[in-house]
């Protein structure tokens, strides 16, 4: 009888020790997704703030009329190579989370290539330093979006993410058109970051913190 009691006691202890194993694993996974989304949202807001200073500095480097507040040039056919964020908001919101994340991932991957080209062409050491720092932050955003997609079970978009033009290809036939390309690159990047911040703010509301989820489950909801 003593042996039987000890066996039952050992079995109960083992069962109690193993009970929290599955909820803990689920909590870790949910917390990882929630934290990944929050981190990506924070990074988009940081890049928005960083770009405001960088854009002002770079437009001053380009000179007039690009640094004038009321300068609103028409979008030339050359600028269509830059991923456009000028999509109807209702149409954009109607996309699935997977589609929006994939579009963000593709766009920032291409925008990063263009920005790295600017980094190599900037005429001052300070501007090159700022561009290099911004490129590093934008690379972090690309990786962060990839992390969010992975945590949600979405595959990364297929296809090459390299520069849209082969190395050595002339960027523009003259200096003014080159400056116009740079102007539209910064303008589109500002719009992408503004919209991405809204995307990730909505997405994080869909994935509640794991602590709240577990408390509701514990109460039987």
Brief sketch in words of this structure:
This protein is mainly α.
Structure commentary:
Helices cover 71% and strands 0% of the residues. With 221 residues, the chain is an all-alpha fold. It has one domain: Growth Hormone, Chain: A. Helix 2 runs antiparallel to helix 6 (175-206), helix 4 (97-121) packs antiparallel against helix 5 and helix 4 packs antiparallel against helix 6 (175-206). One of its GO terms (biological process) is cell surface receptor signaling pathway via JAK-STAT.
List keywords for this structure.
221 residues, mainly alpha, Growth Hormone, Chain: A, 7 helices, 71% helix, disordered C terminus
Overall average residue pLDDT: 77
Strand content: under 5%
- What is the number of E strands? 0
Spans of at least 5 consecutive residues with low confidence: 18-30, 162-170, 211-221
Largest β-sheet summary: none
Q: Using the alpha-carbon principal axes, give the shape.
A: globular
* Rg, Å, rounded: 24 Å
How far apart, in Å, are the first and last alpha carbons?
43 Å
Instruction: Kindly give the count of domains.
Output: 1
According to CATH, what is the class? Mainly Alpha
| CATH arch. level architecture | Up-down Bundle
- Fill in the CATH topology: Growth Hormone, Chain: A
The number of distinct helices, counting runs of at least 4 residues, comes to 7
Order of helices and strands: HHHHHHH
| Fraction in helix | over 70%
Helix/strand/pairing class, anyone? mainly alpha
GO molecular function: cytokine activity
Subcellular location: Secreted
Signal peptide: 1-24
Function: In complex with CRLF1, forms a heterodimeric neurotropic cytokine that plays a crucial role during neuronal development. Also stimulates B-cells. Binds to and activates the ILST/gp130 receptor.
